[in-house]
Amino acid sequence: MAIVNSNYEFTYVDVGQITSPKNEVTVKNMNFVFLTDEAFSMSENILKPYSQRELNYEKRIFNYRLSRARNCVENEFGLIAARFRVLQSAIHLAPQKATYIVLAICVLHNFLRKRGGSYISSSTFDREDKNHDLLYL
């Protein structure tokens, strides 16, 4: 699980199970509102999409906008996988070593983002056209 800010920097990383009770407790104890997927249960600081069964027009719009906001996280994983190719396939090491590799990549990514320069250009990120349609890059 990872939490990413609007500058495409990791603010929290937990390398482990896809969803675990620990992740939900961690998120619930933070003073932020989080955009999540269906894997999380509802709580005071969780925004997740409406179930596909109960969609009316307003809920479809909400889901669409929530999905667009969550693209920041999806982009982040795509960015680090493109830059650090070890993440493009299974890491054939002991789980603890693989965890260290992923955490080191996240720290290195944040360092390079803050340093600026040519690590990742702004044209790398998804953006909108004049009609506010999302352009996936």
Question: Could you characterize the architecture of this molecule?
Answer:
The chain is an alpha+beta fold and 137 residues long. It is built from three helices and six strands. The protein has helices at residues 21-28, 57-83, 95-115, and strands at 2-4, 10-13, 34-35, 46-47, 127-128, 134-135. The protein has a two-stranded antiparallel sheet. Strands 3-4 form a two-stranded parallel sheet. The longest helix is centred in the middle third of the chain and has 27 residues, at 57-83. The mean pLDDT is 81.
The class by helix and strand makeup works out as alpha+beta
- Give me the Rg, rounded: 17 Å
- Compute the average pLDDT: 81
| Subunit arrangement of the protein | single chain
Number of helices: 3
Overall strand count = 6
Protein name: DDE Tnp4 domain-containing protein
Keywords: Metal-binding
Pfam families: DDE_Tnp_4
Domain DDE Tnp4: 32-110
Highlighted features:
137 residues, two-stranded parallel sheet, 6 strands, single chain, alpha+beta, HARBI1_dom, globular, metal-binding, two-stranded antiparallel ribbon
Q: What's this, in brief?
A:
With 137 residues, this protein is an alpha+beta fold. It is 41% helix and 11% strand. The two termini are 23 Å apart.
Topology (elements, then pairings):
Elements: E1 2-4, E2 10-13, H1 21-28, E3 34-35, E4 46-47, H2 57-83, H3 95-115, E5 127-128, E6 134-135
Parallel strand pairs: 3-4
Antiparallel strand pairs: 1-2, 5-6
